Amino acid sequence: MSLESPTPRGSVLLPGPHDVTRHRLPNGMTVLVRENWTSQAVVLRGILRVGSAHEPRDAAGLAQFTASLVTRGTARRSFADIAESIESVGATLGVGCGYFLTTFGGKCLHDDLPLLIDTLGDVLQRPTFPPEHVSRVRDQILNSLRQREANTGIVAYQTFARLIYPPDHPFARSVSGSRDSVANLTRDDLAAFYIAHYGPRDSILVVAGAVQTEAVLVLLEAALGGWQGATRPAPGLPAVPNLSDIRQETVGLPGKTQSDLVLGAPGLDRAHADYVPMWVANSILGQMGIGGRLGERVREQAGLAYYARSTFDAGLGAGPWYARAGVNPANVERAVGLILDEMRRMRDQPVAAWELADVQAYLTGSLPLDVETNESVASELMDIELYGLGLDYLYRLPGLINAVTLADVQAVARRWMTPDAYALAVAGPDMVTG
Amino acid sequence: MTDPLYTHLDNGLTVILQRATHAPVASFWVTYRVGSRNERSGETGISHFVEHLLFKGTPQFSARALKRAIEREGGTWNGMTGMDATKYYATLPAERLDLALRIESDRMVNARFDAADVQSERTVIIAEREGHENSPGWRLGEEMRALAFRVHPYHHAIIGDKADLRTITRDQLYRHYQTYYAPNNAIVVASGDFAPDVLLARIADLFGVIPAAAPPPPVTRAEPPMAGERRVHLTGPDPTAFVHMAYRTPSVSDPDYYSLTMLDAILDGASAQHRSSRLYQALVETELATAVSSSYGASLDPYLFSFSATVRDGESPADIEAALQREIERVAGEPVAEREMAKALKQVQAQIAYVTETVGGQASRLGTAEILGDYRMLDNLLARLQAVTAADIQRVAATYLVPTQRVIGWYTPQAAAWERSRP
User: Architecture of B230-420 per CATH?
Assistant: First the structure.
């Protein structure tokens, strides 16, 4: 039996050209707005074209440190004023940083949107980098870096990244920097980085939720329309050589019980023609259910791990493809063997027709669930604008997914899942002292 | 939003149906009144172990068939075990919700508990526990619970002790399942785009035929008051120190629950960000700690009002402890200003709006509230918190946040061992 819905259902469900307004401010910021009045909540998500890729090599962590300071005081508001006014209405406001982008955004109830937008405009345009906050935030970053150095999952990933990317590539170092680099960064470094790189050119702001489009555009014009900060393109990325061999590194961390392993190779960027077939292939290998074939083999059959899955980070840059698992140190070798075995199987034999059909049904069928919240709508619209996919992308996407063939899946597996040329990093119990 | 339909089937199953039409999706949750609270020594972790085995199939649906059926519809599903409840959910396109009903009614009584599955899942769960053990904060939390509760089963971690995970048998697991998985010990909640009367009829068809079981045994091991403060000090190679403080506090059914909830909101904020909160101002802005929080949650039996702080490198855990103590004395000694009360209430109001944005969030909240006593708890929350006075907050702080009823835990690094391991 099928339950009939009492609601007449049209074909219009996903965000698209019919309900998203795209508007460009004269200073180069693109704004996308989608109204959704099912609750009083509003979400803002934005990006600026600056990230750790813009840092001088000896200043790792500078971009993120700068981003952390932006909300710590402006020419008009102290840190305490910002925190008190935003939190008093149950809103959030944050600025973060990645390899190529600085992200900003927040969430609030409808009535508080003018406050959130005005504060956002202020922090992006007029940060003052108060010295006492530079010092306090530096200590917080150093404390967090110390904790990360003792986290097996993070250490395994960073070791893996160093094995596959050349030392001058931004992917080879953490966006957070290192304790040595962050300890040496000064207030002047942050202020200079801000002046050199923070600006509206090619920036994007998405608003989703209980807003009137015209009203929100007026607010944004007032708060951000006059912004004229400088931006500079990121320096060119060094070439990433393909791996031709197997590289391994094991890091011992005392006091640990479990080992985390990361195994993979350089991958592709979002614009690559292999993106959709790779999405399908990776879902089969390491995502569907509790980790695709890897989860089935390593967790369900062998009982070796609580998690085993694979991921590929295809963004503005060609991030890696990798599998990861958390296992008892005695089982690392066996888990690696099973992962390599599954990579070979993806290359050597076409996946079953039913497997491909299942993953296609899942990826297309989950689209309405993926855009239930304002957060997820904002995130989809951000990707659409950032990668130039077109506002009708979510309507075209099922066709792109369903066009992937068994041969396509095998071809991308052969190109990117390379069991004879990979890097393997393991971080776990220090066998000498543990 | 309209009021949910609330009813019971003849076999004791509680049914709550909340229609929401903002998206063509629906979420179906089954919540069982069983968790680590219902476990005895030698069987710790058994509720969570049973939850894992409910994903291993029934004679009608194999594990693979279950997974494929949900995924082919683009759905998501999972299970979660807590101290007081175990929950299963599936979120699906609304017109496919029947699939969740068929799966959940089947596995309420027909899960296989195959011996081979018990063995492979045992090592998966031990691996899950070993992943937690990598975190010193998690290990400190486990020690704190054990110290705070000598008698009541809240004393052990939900995942259970390794000794029990290694030795619990298939028959013990099956008996636990038979004892607690029955319509009279369960609540089904659906939220989403459906016709409640049609859905109720279908639930009655599928779940109504399952016979009620004997009422599960009551939890009898009530925790006596503490005779004095208890302390634990862990050390290890992880480089960052933590301080945890936890005070024994009443359960959700106590009238003081709402005053304690407001106390938590005053100290730590009730928002996702809390940089303007009293604790953040007193510990992080003064550069004693790099992070601090308090928490007080709703539980069936008396549990804890907890504080935790990450010690800034070079600062001492004793100073952190003293700073927390000063904030407790301040809130117990001086009435909270009207403006601060209004801020906390507005934060709660915003959080309620945010969590009810999704069908999954709505259904989860309704099931939890019903387990704790009343499915309308969230609707009434704001009004109950508005009724709390500044004097109430002072009173509960002075009554419950007292040294004799607390547990204090420190984790501090053995710097020498850590430095030795650095390259």
Answer: 2-Layer Sandwich (3.30)
Token representation of residue A434? 């543990």
Angle at A355 between CA A353 and CA A357, to 5 degrees: 70
E-assigned strand segments in A160-258: 204-209, 246-253
Residue A69 CB neighbour total at 10 angstroms: 26
Contacts of B122 (CB under 8 A, 6+ apart): A303, B49, B165, B166, B168
Query: Over 60: is that where the pLDDT of B374 sits?
Result: yes
How far apart CA B195 and CA B35 sit, in angstroms, is 32
Helix (H) or strand (E) holding B324: helix B317-333
Residues of A in contact with B94 (CB under 8 A): 3, 5
Query: Can you tell me which residue has the tokens 């993070």?
Result: A154
H or E segment to which residue A265 belongs: strand A259-266
Which among A3, A147, A326 has CB closest to B95?
A3
Chain B hits for A6, Cβ within 8 Å: 194-195
Helix axes B115-133, B46-53, angle to 10 degrees: 120
Q: What is the DSSP letter of B2?
A: P
Contact B53, B173 (CB under 8 A): yes
A433 pLDDT higher than 70: no
Dihedral of the alpha carbons of B330, B335, B338, B342, in degrees to the nearest 10: 60
Residues 236-255 of A with CB under 8 A from B: 252-255
Residue from A268, A271, A272, A278 nearest A404 by CA: A278
pLDDT above 90 coverage of chain B, percent: 91
Q: Please give the Cα distance from B286 to A393 (Å, whole number).
A: 49
pLDDT of residue B2: 80
Q: What is the edge-to-edge ordering of all strands in the sheet holding A246-253? A: A246-253, A422-429, A259-266, A318-327, A305-314
ipTM above 0.90, yes or no: yes
Instruction: Give the pLDDT score at B415.
Output: 67
How far is C-alpha B174 from the geometric centre of its chain's CA atoms? 24
Amino acid at A389: L
The phi, psi pair for B25, rounded to 5°, reads: -130, 160
- The chain A residue lying nearest B94, using CA atoms, is A5
Domains and CATH numbers, chain A: 20-224 (3.30.830.10), 247-428 (3.30.830.10)
Contact criterion met (CB < 8 Å) for B75 and A5: no
Mean pLDDT for A350-359 is 96
Residue A433 and residue B348: Cβ atoms within 8 Å? no
The answer, for A131 touching chain B at a CB cutoff of 8 Å, is no
Start-to-end CA distance of chain B, whole Å, equals 60
Cβ pair A198, A48 in contact under 8 A? yes
Are residues A218 and A37 in contact, defined by beta-carbon separation less than 8 angstroms? Answer: no
Does the pLDDT of residue B194 top 90, yes or no?
yes
Look at the alpha carbons of A305, B28, B193, A378 in this order and tell me if their dihedral is positive or negative: negative
Chains A & B: contacts with CB separation below 8 Å: 224
Looking at the domain B5-207, which fold is it? Answer: Cytochrome Bc1 Complex; Chain A, domain 1 (3.30.830)
Optimal mutation site among A9, A35, A84, A88, interface B, most CBs of chain B within 10 A: A88
Mean pLDDT estimate for chain A = 94
- B68-115 pLDDT, tens per residue? 899 999 999 999 999 999 999 999 999 999 999 999 999 999 999 999
CB-based contact, A299 to chain B, within 8 Å? yes
User: What's the rounded mean pLDDT across residues A330-347?
Assistant: 97
Q: What are phi and psi of A275, to 5 degrees?
A: -55, -55
Query: What residues does CATH 3.30.830.10 cover in chain B?
Result: 5-207, 230-420
Inter-CA distances, B382 with A133, B16, B258, B290, B314, Å: 36, 21, 10, 32, 42
